[in-house]
Amino acid sequence: MPGRWDTSTKRLIGENPAHFIQWLLPGATLIKEAVSRPLNLNNREIEADNLFEILLNGHLCSAHFELQTSRDDTMARRMWEYNALATFSYNRPTYSCVIYLKKCRTTEPFYTWTFPNGEVIHRFSFKVVELWKISPEAIKQTGLAGLFPLMVLAQDGKQPTVVEEIIGSVRASGEPSAPELLSLTYILASLVFEKEADRLWLKRRFGMLRDVLRDTWAYQEIMQEGREEGLQLGIQEGRQEGLQEGRQEGLQEGLQQRLKDQRQILMTIMQAHFPDLISLAKKQINEVQDPDILQHIVLQLLVAQSGEQAQQVLLAVGSSSTMKRRKKQK
């Protein structure tokens, strides 16, 4: 599950792990995220999405959540393998659950291994959650704000009325993590909304919340990642060379990386919210060689309320670049 799905859903559980524990294991209490240990058996390592230390009926246990967006015919075996490794590594019983975020063919909630004589020598059970079979109202009725962003992935959840319900419920919850939950709702909705009208509405609706979202991890990550990584690359490579020429080459590579990252961010915005203007965007941004100008364009597109406004931003790119060059010449 690469990219934004992976990052956002892991972050969602990380914001309120106690809420996921309450939802999937009633009566259990979250202690903390499990301390990292090498999970290996015969030199084989398996990476988990989320593993937590919990207390249930006076017993210390572990809870493991796996997040999945597509069919995986090896899922049952993977769940069994990780459960066995976690159980041995932490010396405590481990509860495993796979949460399917998008509709697909899911695995059976058990894994069996049969000996050649027909005798079952391993049988392992785990929980399977299929979000598209759960109503948004059922998730809301849990009263667990950390789950509310999942409503947009629930049955008939990808619609503006559900997003409005999430926004209102999250803000009314008083959770300290409310801004992050709203930011995650925006990301998840942008990944599942298919109609152009819904996407434009989503853009406008969360544009009204930009002051709330500005300091969240998602906003900061999108706006700063390209710039920081590009600049750092240039500085590091320049230092490694140890010579002025090397530093200049490194900074130039950093500049090119910043340009590449800003263009990628801009095209992601266009694909999600203004797909009809993609050809114009490609033509305009290819003329820009200054990452600061591109970043300014990205910020303008983020607050654009319509396709017409986005088009005006793109058509103004040429004049912005000319003004920047004139300033440098002076």
Shape: elongated
Parts with pLDDT < 50 across at least 5 consecutive residues: 41-46, 325-330
Biggest β-sheet description: 5 strands, mixed
Q: What is the CA-CA span between the terminal residues?
A: 50 Å
Strand order of the largest sheet: 1-4-5-6-9
Radius of gyration: 24 Å
Give the helices and strands as they follow along the chain. HHEEEEEHEEEEHHHHHHHHHHH
Tell how many strands the DSSP assignment holds.
9
What is the quaternary state of this protein? single chain
Structural class: alpha/beta
Q: What's the pLDDT, averaged over the residues?
A: 82
Number of domains: 3
Percent in helix: 55-70%
Strand content: 5-15%
Topology, pairings included?
Blueprint: H1 3-15, H2 17-24, E1 29-33, E2 40-41, E3 44-45, E4 50-56, E5 59-68, H3 75-90, E6 94-100, E7 110-114, E8 120-125, E9 127-130, H4 136-140, H5 160-173, H6 178-192, H7 196-207, H8 210-213, H9 217-241, H10 244-273, H11 278-285, H12 291-302, H13 307-315, H14 317-329
Parallel strand pairs: 5-6, 6-9
Antiparallel strand pairs: 1-4, 2-3, 4-5, 7-8
Name a few traits of the molecule:
five-stranded mixed sheet, 3 domains, 330 residues, single chain, 14 helices, alpha/beta, elongated
Describe the structure.
It is a single chain. Strand 4 (50-56) and strand 5 form a beta hairpin. 56% of the residues lie in helices and 15% in strands. By secondary structure, it is α/β, with parallel strands linked by helices. The chain has a five-stranded mixed β-sheet with strand order 1-4-5-6-9, with helices on both faces. The chain has three domains: 3-133, no CATH class; 140-213, no CATH class; 217-329, no CATH class. The N and C termini lie far apart (50 Å). The chain has 14 helices and nine strands. The protein has helices spanning 3-15, 17-24, 75-90, 136-140, 160-173, 178-192, 196-207, 210-213, 217-241, 244-273, 278-285, 291-302, 307-315, 317-329; strands spanning 29-33, 40-41, 44-45, 50-56, 59-68, 94-100, 110-114, 120-125, 127-130. The protein is elongated and about 75 Å long. Helix 9 (217-241) packs antiparallel against helix 10, helix 10 runs antiparallel to helix 11 and helix 10 (244-273) runs parallel beside helix 12.
